[in-house]
Each structure stands twice: as structure tokens, then as C-alpha cells.
Amino acid sequence: MSTSATTGAGGATTDRLPRPVPPFARVPVLVLAALVTALLVALAPRYDMVTDELYFLAAGKFHPAWGYMDQQPLVPLLAAFLDTTFPGSLIAFRLPAALATGLGVVLTALIAREFGGHRKAQLLAAAAYPLSPWLLLNGHWLTASTMEPLQWTAMLWLLVRWVRLHDRGVQRDRLLIGIGMVAALAVQTKFQVVVLCAALLLAMTATGPRAVFTRPALWAAVAIPAVTAVPTLWWQATHGWPALEMGTAVNDENDRLLLVPTALFYAGAVVGAVLCCYGLVVLLRSPVHRYLGWAALGVLVFFLGAGGRPNYVAGLFGVLFAAAAVGVQRLSGTLLWPACAISAVLPLAMLPVYPLDFLARHPELPSYPRLYETGWPELTEEVAHAYRSLPPEQQRRAVIVAENYYLAGALEVRGRAAGLPSVHSPHRGYWFFGAPPEGADVVLHVGRRSLADHFGRSQRLGTVESDLVNMARGNEITLYQDPLQPWSELWPRLRTS
Fold first, then answer.
1. Average of pLDDT values for 97-123?
2. Whole-prediction pTM
């Protein structure tokens, strides 16, 4: 369809209207998004909180701060608000995650529409989003890695829309302001969004549209997250930039050679991986959207070089799915939709759909939710039993030290109701929550690490038992007494990453 315009004196164009995009496939896309959201809401109360949810809740509720070593304050504060407003409700606690996943489905379809995709392309792009094992499984949890893909997808949709309108002579600079506002939320979620923004700016400098740099709204959009990040950056600076230490820890625990294949697996074992690869090719060959292809490559190269987890690139899945879907929209659906059906098996199987007694009978069955969402009641009960076995004078001087952050989060969130003393951990971000008080000379240590070299006396009190194979099972509970150094000296020596 040709561009509409009005002309003034002498035939000069005074206003240009954007070329209409294809109609939005509203009904099928919204139905799909609603089904995905409903599935995640229905599964929300299954099992228990995952390790990171426990950590975020403990951080936001008991240790609120402008920043943390491994995350930023948005999700911890949201977790604390939800738990305070709807205590004990996993459905309410996880509802934002389910809504974020459903909205990601819609935004991916809208990006396909901006690329010129018709109904079939929009629906294929939308379907690819929940077919990603990573995106669907993370929609079951309230974590930073759940919110980040939605934020990236929203920013990319606003940018693609601005470029399309600018190409037709229409300036909608409020879209750039919208990018800045979403980026402000993203930088309070995880710092990785800075890599995306830098890659986009560099790519647009190299390939266009360079006109974006002449728009004052762009620099306002840059200023919004920069200003709102000042308190978080101040916290990082005053604590020795622990985010950099976290980056080193992530690099040490991940194999860079596996980053790309694992990221493709996260995108989808069949449809998602293929669409990601083809979508990158489509973008790099597009005269208008080549900057998106180079930006995606830039993000990937950065994390390959600096180190990162495969899920760090999950925020690019939506735009790659959309580009690929538009590229194949003229193909028959004879192969596409059966491939989608096959691809759905893995992400659905990774959700907490199995009865726990079935998982107990089949410990060999891989189940991420069972491993990281179960065992917390048994952990709390066993530690509470050990604490109550102490004489009253020891209980008054006792603290709990958990070996890692997920044990500490579970014990702090659940332990207060069970009457447990304060919980500490020398692991990662929990270390910054503080050392035990100097008068605490009785320690209940939970974990597999021995602290015997740092205390005068030790005694094993028990082991956490569970019918299921999980992160709580097998951790020892050891009583340590008479620390050989003051906590101010001992705590830095115990720190782990």
C-alpha cells in the first residue's frame, strides 16, 4: 500500500503518514498469551519457592538495600511487597512472572507485525516464545531472569516501531522515551541491559538509522536509566563493586564453548533454535533492520569474551523469533505446526507437573523444579529440631550459618516462624548482609563444608533427610562453639563466591 500524504503550496509534502502495518492477529495471539498465563498461574502453587525466590524474598524483606552483589533491588522489593500483601500465597507471589511471560508472547507478535508479518507470522513468533524451555520455565518463578527478557523485548519493540515510523517520515519520539523508562526498570533488575543498549548504539552508528542520534528524545532516554541508577551505582562503589566479582564467579562456573549451544537449547530444542539462527540471518540481510542483527551479535560476542550465562541472551529471543517468522511466512504450515507441537514437549515437561510421590519413586528422572523447589520444610524442621536440642543458655547465644545463599534464604524466610535465630551466610550476596554478632559463640552450621579449623569445639547434630533428591537433602547440621577469632576477622576468611 502506498504512503498517504497531504501537500501544501507548490506540491511540497507537509505531512506523511506511516505505511500501515498488517492487522494485528489479536484473537489468536491474545488467546495464546492467555493460555500460557493461565497454565503458569495454575502451576504456581505446585511444590515450593525456588532457591532464587527465597533469596530475593529474604533480601527484599529482611535486608532491603539500594543494591546487591548479584542482582539489583527491583525484584527483591517486589517479592517483599507481594509476600507482605499476600502472605503465603504462591499464586499471588508468582502472578507477575506469569503475566510477564504472557506479555512477552504478545510483544513478540507485535515485533513480527512491525517487520511486516501477517497473521501467520505473528502467530508463529508468538508461539515460539513459550516454546522456549527457558522462557516458559522462568515464567513459573519470580526472579530477575524472568523479568529481563520481557524488558529487553519491550525495548526492542519500541525501537523497531520508532524506526518504521521514522522511515515513513513520522517522528514518534515518545517511543524513545518509552525505551528509556523500560531501561530504567531493566537496570534496576540486572545490569546486563547496559550491554544491550551499548550494542544497539554501536550498531546504529555503524549501519543506521543514524538519524536517531539527532533526536533529543534519545539522549533523554539515555539519561533516565542513568539517573535512576545512581543509588545502585553508589551502593556498588561503597561496597567495592561486588557486581564485578559476581561476573568473575559466573565466568568461572560456565564454559564459554557451551554458551552458544546452550543458549540455542534454551531458545527451543527444535523450533526456537532454528528460528534464532534464521532470524539472525534475516536481520543481517535487511537494509532497514541490519542494526538489530549486529546488535545481537555484539551482545553474544560480549558475553563470549567477558563470560556469562547462556540465559543472558534470552532477551534477544523475541526479536529473533519475529524476524524468522516473517522470513518463513510464505511457507506452508505442513511442517511448521507439527514442529511446534514436538517442541512443546520439552518446556512442558520441565514444569512442575509431576506428583511428588512419583518423583520420589523415580530419583533418576531429571526435574529442575524438584531439585530446587522441594526440601525446604524438611530443612527447616531439622534445623529447628537441632536448635531446640541446645540448652537455653546456648540458644540465646546461637546463630545459624548456612553454607550457601539458597539454604540461607530458605532458613531465613521459613525459620522466623519456626523460632530460629538469625541466619547468616558467607556465600555471594548473603555475605554482605552481615556477620554474626561478636557475642555469638554458638553456631549451627548447615552445609557440607567443615568449619572445624575456625572453632574450638564441633559436634555433628544431624543430617537433612528428604524423600526427594533436592538441594536440601544431605546437608549436615553441625554445632560449632568457641570461635578462634572475632567475627570481624573470621567473616572475611569464610567468604565464598
1. 97
2. 0.92
